[in-house]
Amino acid sequence: MSFTYDYARPALTTDCVVFGLDEEDLKVLLIQRAIKPFKDQWALPGGFIQVGEDVDDCARRELEEETGLKNIFLEQLATVGTPKRDPREHVVTVAYYALVNLIEHPPTAATDAKHAAWFALDDLPKLAFDHADILKLAHERLRGKVRYQPIGFELLPEKFTLTELQKLYELILEQTFDKRNFRKKVAKLDILEETDELEQDVARRAARLYRFDRSRYRVLIKQGINFEL
Amino acid sequence: MSFTYDYARPALTTDCVVFGLDEEDLKVLLIQRAIKPFKDQWALPGGFIQVGEDVDDCARRELEEETGLKNIFLEQLATVGTPKRDPREHVVTVAYYALVNLIEHPPTAATDAKHAAWFALDDLPKLAFDHADILKLAHERLRGKVRYQPIGFELLPEKFTLTELQKLYELILEQTFDKRNFRKKVAKLDILEETDELEQDVARRAARLYRFDRSRYRVLIKQGINFEL
DNA sequence: CAATCAAAGTGTTAAAAATACACATTAAGG
DNA sequence: CCTTAATGTGTATTTTTAACACTTTGATTG
User: Is the sign of the CA dihedral B167, B173, B175, B177 positive or negative?
Assistant: First the structure.
C-alpha cells in the first residue's frame, strides 16, 4: 500500500529528551538504534507521526514503545526542520522533553525490546542525527524553566527531603545555595506539604519528607502569585 | 506530477502571529483567505512547507509572500497537530510569532495581493481554523518573554522616547508603572543609548530619543547579567 | 554505653532592591 | 504672556536577598 499527494511532503517525527535524576547526576535516557541510518548509535527515543494522530500523543506513544515510560511529564520543546538533518530525506521533527524520577524508573526497567540506557549529561556517547543539538536545547530549556515553574518536582519521588530538592536545583542550575536561605525561600512559596514521615534507612538523623502540593500551587497561580526560585 | 510514499503523511504548514504596536493598541496582522476552506475569513498568514526548505525559512517566505514583511523578528512558538484542526485532512502547523513596528509597516503597505489588515487584540474578527488558539498562545508567550528578554524593542522604531517604551510594557503586561521607578530600572539595565535628538512635531515639550544598544546587550548577556524588567 | 560521625535543622544582621510618592521645567499654541 | 500638556527628576520606606555558624538528632562503632 502507498500514499500519493499532489505536492512533496517532508516526513514528520517526534523525538523526546527524557531527563532523570539520581544522587549525583542529571541523566538522559537514550536508545540504541536497531536500524539504518546510524545503526547501533545512540539516539533520542522517537519515531514517525501517524496520520490522524495528535503530535503530543505520538511523542507519548513512541516513548512508551521504545522505553516503557508512560504517564510522565512531557512538554514540547521545539520543531527542527533543517532539510539535511536526516540523510534519507527531509524529516521535520517535533522535539519534546520529559522529566521522570529515576528511583521509580531505574535503568533496567527501560531496557525493553530496544537497548535503552541512562547517561549522565557530562558523559554522553556520540548521538545520531542532530540529536546532540536537540539535547542541548532541552537542557537549556530545563535550566530556564525550572526557576519559574515547579517542574523540578517531576524529577523527584512523590515524597522527598528538602536537601534532595536543594540538590536538584543545584544540579540543574549548576550553582550552590545556602541551606537556610534555600529553605526560607521554599517555605515562602508555600507549595510544599509537610508529611509526618521521615527518610528511611539512613545512617544518620533522618530528614523530614515533604510533598509538592499541586492543588495549592494551582490556587496560588490563579491568584496571580508567581513561583520563582 | 505527484508524490508517493509508503506511509501516509500529515501535511505540514507554518503560521505566523505578527504583532505590531501603535499609540493605543497591540495589534495583529491578519489576511483574508482567498480560497476554501474558510474562504473570505480572516486567518494568520502562513502556508505549506516545501520539501528541502527549512521550517524557519518557510515561515519567513510565506510571511513575505502574503504580507510583504521581511527581515523582521521571528521566533518559533509551538507546533500544533490536532488531527481535526483542518477539515480537509491532517495538517500539522509550526506556529511562529513576529514583532514589527507599525510605524515602519503601516496597515496599507501590507495590502498586497491578498487582503491583509491590522486588528487590535481586543477587537478581533472570527478566525479560520484554530488560529484564535494560536493567537492566544502567542500573546501569552509575548507577555511572558517581554519581561526577561529585550524583544519589546522590536515593536518600536529605531529611536523612541522613554514614555513610548513604558507604554509598550504597560500595553503588553496590562499594568501601569511609576514613571520614575520605570526610568530608574531601565537606566540600570544599561542597554539604552541616549541620542542627542528630540521628538519632532509635538505640541509640548519634546522628549529625548533613545536607541536600543544591541551590542551592549550582547556583552552584558555574555557577562551573565540577565535582563529583567 | 559512651564517643564519634554525618547530616538535619534553625535566626539574625547587613546590604540591596523595590516601591511609594510630587513638583519644577520646558516648549508649543492661542 | 498665559495656558496646557507632558518631560524629567530625588528621597524615604519597605521588602527582599545574601551572608554567615552552631546545636540537635540518631545511627554506628569500639
Answer: negative
pLDDT in tens, chain A (229 residues): 899 999 999 999 999 999 999 888 999 999 999 999 999 999 999 999 999 999 999 999 999 999 999 999 999 999 999 999 999 999 999 999 999 998 887 765 554 546 899 999 999 999 999 999 999 999 999 999 999 999 999 999 999 999 999 999 999 999 999 999 999 999 999 999 999 999 999 999 999 999 999 999 999 998 888 899 8
C-alpha cell at A224: 496571580
Give the range of the structural domain holding residue B72, as residue numbers without chain letter.
11-145
B117 shares its domain with B52 = yes
Q: Virtual CA dihedral for A53, A59, A108, A19, nearest 10 degrees?
A: -160
Q: Say whether both B183 and B211 belong to one domain.
A: yes
pTM of the complete model = 0.95
Report the CATH number that the domain containing residue A198 is assigned in CATH.
1.10.10.10
Residues with CB under 7 A from strand C: A 161-163, 179-181, 183-184, 203-208; B 178-181, 184-185, 202-206, 228
Same-domain pairing of B19 and B94? yes
Q: Is A175 on the interface with B (CB under 8 A)?
A: no
| Whether residue A26 sits in one domain with residue A74 | yes
Pairwise CA distance, residues A225 & B42, whole Å: 36
- Measured between alpha carbons, how far is B151 from B95 in angstroms, rounded to an integer? 18
Residues B165, B198 within the same domain: yes
Same domain? B101 vs B171: no
Based on the fold, state whether residues A131 and A32 are members of the same structural domain: yes
Query: How many Å apart are CA B153 and CA A33, to the nearest integer?
Result: 45
Distance, in Å, from the CA atom of A142 to the CA atom of B71, rounded to the nearest integer, reads 30
Alpha-carbon distance of B144 to B172, in angstroms, equals: 9
| A81 in reach of chain B (CB within 8 A) | yes
Helix boundaries (H) for B85-191: 107-110, 131-145, 162-173, 179-189
Q: Does A35 touch chain B (CB under 8 A)?
A: no
